[in-house]
Amino acid sequence: MLKFFKDKKLDKITPEDVEDYRTWRANQKSPKTNKVLRPATTNRELACLKALFNFFIKGDVLLKNPVSKVKFFNEGNEQMRTLSFDEQQKYLATASQPLRDAAILMLETGMRPEAVYRIRVENINLDGGFIFNPYGKTKAAKRKVPLNKTSLEVVTRRMNAVNSLYLFPSPDDLTKPVVKLNNAHYGALKRSSLKPFRLYDPRHTWATRAAMSGIDLVTLAAMLGHSRIQMGLRYAHPTEQHQADTARRLEEYNAARAIAEVEQGSAASLVN
C-alpha cells in the first residue's frame, strides 16, 4: 500500500484511488509462485486499509472511509479443494520433516496450520487421547482436539524426539514454535507433481471427509472450533461421486419403500 499510495495523505484518498489500487494489486504476481495474486490476498489488504481508516474515524480525525464504497473480490470456495487419498499419499511421500508430521496432524485432526505449529507439549494428553488448543478468538476455538491412532503415533514420536516446549520448535530457536512451512510445502508440491493446493487445504480435506462419513454439522462445527454451524458449510463439500452415491441410495430406499407399501396394501386387501 505504501508503494502504491506513496506520500498521499489519508484524507486525500478517494474511492477511485482505492479502486485503482484494487485493480493494480490484483494484476501483480506473487514473488514466490510467480502467479497472479489470489483475490483473497487483495481482499485482506483492502480490509487492512479499511481498518486503518476506521481507526482514525473513531478518533474524529477523518469523517469518511473510501474503502467502504469499494466492492471486494468474490473469493468463493474455488481456492479450497479436497485431496484424494492418492494425492495425500504422494504429497506425504515427498514432504520433508517437520512438514510431513504437521500435514498428517492437519489431515487427521482438522487443525489449522498455525494451531499445529504452536502445539505445546504440556497441552498434549496421551492418556486422554487429545490435544488442548488454547488459541482462538472464540470459546469454541479453544477446545480439546481428539487424536486418532495415526495422529497419536505422530504426537508420541515427536514428543520423544524433540527437546522443546513445542511439538514443532523453530530450527533457529527451540524456545519458540516454527512460524511457517511454506517453502517446504512448495518443495513437496514440486517433487510430487501435484496440482497446487494450500497448506490450509488438509484441514478442508478432513472436514469434507468428516461430513461425507456422516458426522452431523453440529459435531463438525464443534470439532473444527467453529462457533456457528453455518461456518461448517463452507468446508463440507460433498464430492460429485458422493452425491451420486447418495442419490443411488435414495433411489434404492424409495424403491424398497414403494414395494413394502404395495405389499402391505395387498395384504390388507386380502384380509378385508
Keywords:
3 strands; 272 residues; 53% helix; single chain; three-stranded antiparallel β-sheet; mainly alpha; hpI Integrase, Chain A
Low-pLDDT parts are none
**Percentage of residues in strands:** under 5%
SSE string, helix = H, strand = E? HHHHHHEEEHHHHHH
The fold-level CATH name of the domain at 85-203 is hpI Integrase, Chain A
The CATH homologous superfamily of the domain at 85-203 is called: Intergrase catalytic core
- Second-tier CATH architecture of the domain at 85-203: Orthogonal Bundle
Our Rg estimate from Cα atoms comes to: 25 Å
Provide the residue-averaged pLDDT: 88
Task: Report strand order across the widest sheet.
Answer: 1-2-3
Q: Assign the structural class, choosing from mainly alpha, mainly beta, alpha/beta, alpha+beta, or little secondary structure.
A: mainly alpha
Distance between the termini: 84 Å
Question: In which range does the helix fraction lie?
Answer: 40-55%
Largest sheet: 3 strands, antiparallel
Question: What CATH first level of the domain at 85-203 would be assigned?
Answer: Mainly Alpha
| Strands, count | 3
Query: Judging from the principal axes of the Cα atoms, what is the shape?
Result: globular
Number of helices: 12
Write the topology of this structure.
Elements lengths: L1 H4 L9 H12 L12 H20 L26 H10 L4 H11 L3 H5 L6 E2 L4 E4 L9 E4 L2 H13 L20 H11 L8 H12 L4 H8 L4 H5 L6 H32 L1
Antiparallel strand pairs: 1-2, 2-3
Helix pairs in contact: 2-3, 4-8, 5-7, 5-9
Overview of the structural elements:
With 272 residues, the protein is mostly helical. Among the domains are: 2-69, no CATH class; 85-203, hpI Integrase, Chain A. Helices cover 53% and strands 4% of the residues. The protein is built from twelve helices and three strands, in the order ααααααβββαααααα. Strands 1-2-3 form a three-stranded antiparallel β-sheet, with no helix packed on it. Helix 5 (99-109) packs parallel to helix 9 (201-212). The protein is globular and about 90 Å long. The chain starts with a helix and ends with a helix. The mean pLDDT is 88.
